[in-house]
Write a structure and sequence with these properties.
By secondary structure, this protein is mainly β. The protein has no helices and 11 strands. The strands form 2 sheets. Strands 2, 4, 5, 6, 9, 10 and 11 form a 7-stranded mixed beta sheet that branches. The chain has a 4-stranded antiparallel beta sheet with strand order 1-3-8-7, with no helix packed on it. Strand 4 and strand 5 (45-52) form a beta hairpin. The termini are far apart.
């Protein structure tokens, strides 16, 4: 079994920063890609960022230039550095791991991922 545990969420004022972490544990698992999604109150889960095993990175348009996804393979951890936060960034942020390799932008869709964390709340006040 593979477990993903997110941390680093909290309450921050607009234009502030937060860094989310996601630790992967359990059976030996090499993710083809790791992703971050978020879900705002009353809305569906939306893609935020993903990093492929090869190092290729995808971002949702509204976070480009503000968010940075990275990973530390030695620590089995993926990070999401979030700068210049806006109230619209508020939501529960979920980490996800994909077991299969896909081309193109398929990692922007939730169905590409096999394992999910429980989520961490991010609240940005105006």
């Amino acid at each position: 079994q593979v477990q993903l545990v997110e941390s680093g969420g909290g309450l921050v004022q607009a234009v502030g920063s937060l860094r989310l972490s996601c630790v992967v544990s359990g059976r030996t698992f090499s993710a083809a890609a790791m992703g971050w999604f978020r879900q705002a109150p009353g809305k569906g889960r939306e893609f935020v960022a993903a990093i492929r095993w090869s190092g290729g990175i995808l971002y949702e348009d509204s976070v480009k230039g503000r968010f940075t996804i990275s990973r530390d393979n030695a620590k089995n951890t993926v990070y999401l550095q979030m700068n210049t936060l806006k109230p619209d960034d508020t939501g529960v942020y979920y980490c996800a791991a994909a077991a299969k390799y896909y081309s193109g932008s398929f990692y922007e869709t939730a169905s590409a991922y096999d394992y999910w964390g429980q989520g961490t709340q991010v609240t940005v006040s105006s």
